[in-house]
Design brief:
With 426 residues, this protein is of the alpha/beta class. The protein is built from 17 helices and 8 strands. It has 3 domains: 3-111, no CATH class; 117-170 and 374-426, no CATH class; 197-359, no CATH class. It is elongated, with a radius of gyration of 29 Å.
Length: 426
């Protein structure tokens, strides 16, 4: 039993009938009040009827009545408007700063045993990883779970919008620039996302666009700015890139990154930064104005094809400079990676663009894109699947990731709609 749970049952009035105060007066709750998350009483403007007389005021909630004194409320005039002290256990009488004694409601006599048991099932100590509701998910109608996931998919896009807004402010409203930064970041994958964002910011998109008809020079600019063209090379291709970069570097005042920022360890060779940078160069050459190219597309298959660009021919037989690969073949962005770019880069950017221009159509399209893509496959999604909740598409897998991150990880079952249905199940 926790005070947070008492707040919850009071707010949702999950109480038995026949409420009476500790001095025997009948209480009828007409309005539980407005939750207060700042200093002061827990609920404002509650409406209660005591013996047929209506009272309007504040409600304070504690586990024990003695918590009132321990928290210093007896000397605080901010609590003088409290008309009802709601406690689990009334272990003493209390009074306000003005000397008045508020009514006390002792909840332990008015809690539904089933609701208490349902709550305790979500907080059982043997549940060591989310979802903590896995044993009770069968009590929730699939339609209710689906409706909650719809809301969470939008919540996920809104959360990602914060990053987009930060980048827009940094770029002074440059949609093309932000699109390029986001695509670069998510093309890098989890291990190299930060380094790729730094690379994109260090390599002006306008300079790359100037050379988009010369793919080798675009790759030379990106590889050089990544700090990967320093030193001596044996193969002709990196030597050519090195020469191109040195020719461009002096005229444009370019400064390369620290090459130690790049991570190769424990990555699949196809995800090495060298391969991804070459693919990014190919994408820049294919699109020109990437943002407006994507904005004109309505078909998710065309977006997928756009992102599935191929690294330069040299990388067919290499994963790193001067090191011949055991397997030979084209190094193309895979379908799952292309989906990741749509999910994590383009959909949030399109959603924010819709907000900025008052276009509900763009916002709806961002969500619709996610619903057209297959669900992601990762540890979180697999845990939910094993618990009986299977994502039908990327919108639902994104919703489950939001649920895990913002609710399950911090055990916010009382703020979760699924938790509400389980707790209220009788």
């Amino acid at each position: 039993m926790t005070e947070a749970f008492l707040h919850y049952v009071w707010q949702h009035q999950m109480l038995t009938d026949g409420l009476t105060s500790t001095d025997g007066q009948p209480i009828v709750v007409q309005k539980a009040g407005q939750p207060n998350h700042d200093a002061g009483p827990d609920f404002f403007n509650a409406h209660i009827s005591v013996g047929g007389v209506e009272w309007v005021g504040n409600v304070e909630i504690h586990m024990r009545a003695s918590d009132w004194r321990r928290h210093g409320h007896s000397a605080d005039a901010a609590y003088n408007n409290v008309v009802l002290h709601v406690v689990y256990e009334a272990d003493c009488d209390i009074e306000l700063q003005n000397g008045r004694r508020p009514l006390t409601l002792e909840l332990k006599h008015f809690l539904h045993p089933a609701i208490v048991a349902n709550y305790e099932s979500l907080t059982a100590p043997d549940l060591c990883e989310p979802p903590y509701c896995r044993r009770r998910l069968g009590d929730v109608a699939p339609m209710k779970v689906s409706a909650f996931l719809d809301r969470l998919a939008v919540e996920r896009l809104e959360a990602k919008s914060q990053t987009v807004h930060r980048l827009l402010e940094e770029s002074r409203g440059g949609w093309e620039q932000v699109c390029y930064w986001l695509v670069a970041r998510y093309l890098g994958g989890t291990a190299n996302a930060f380094a790729f964002e730094l690379l994109a910011k260090a390599t002006d998109l306008r300079l790359l666009a100037r050379w988009k008809d010369n793919p080798r020079r675009v790759e030379a600019l990106l590889m050089g700015q990544a700090g990967l063209l320093q030193g001596y090379f044996e193969d002709d291709y990196p030597r050519q890139l090195q020469a191109d970069y040195e020719a461009l570097q002096s005229g444009a005042g370019l400064r390369p990154m620290d090459s130690h920022l790049w991570k190769f360890y424990r990555l699949r060779p196809s995800a090495f930064p060298t391969i991804r940078i070459s693919q990014l160069a190919s994408l820049v050459c294919r699109t020109g104005n990437m943002f407006h190219t994507l904005l004109a597309m309505k078909d998710v298959d065309k977006m997928e094809d756009l992102f599935m660009c191929e690294a330069a021919d040299y990388w067919r037989s290499h994963y790193q400079f001067d090191t011949t690969a055991a397997s030979v073949g084209p190094k193309r962005v895979g379908k799952s990676q292309a989906h990741s770019l749509i999910i994590n880069a383009w959909a949030p950017l399109l959603f924010v663009y819709g907000e900025a221009h008052g276009s509900q159509e763009c916002k709806d399209q961002a969500i619709d894109l996610l619903s057209q893509l297959p669900p992601e496959d990762n540890a979180v999604i697999r845990r939910w699947r094993s618990s009986g909740v299977t994502a039908a598409n990327a919108a639902e897998s994104q919703a489950l990731l939001q649920l895990d991150k913002n609710y399950c990880q911090s055990r916010r079952c009382l703020q979760c709609r699924i938790g509400y249905y389980i707790i209220n199940h009788q």
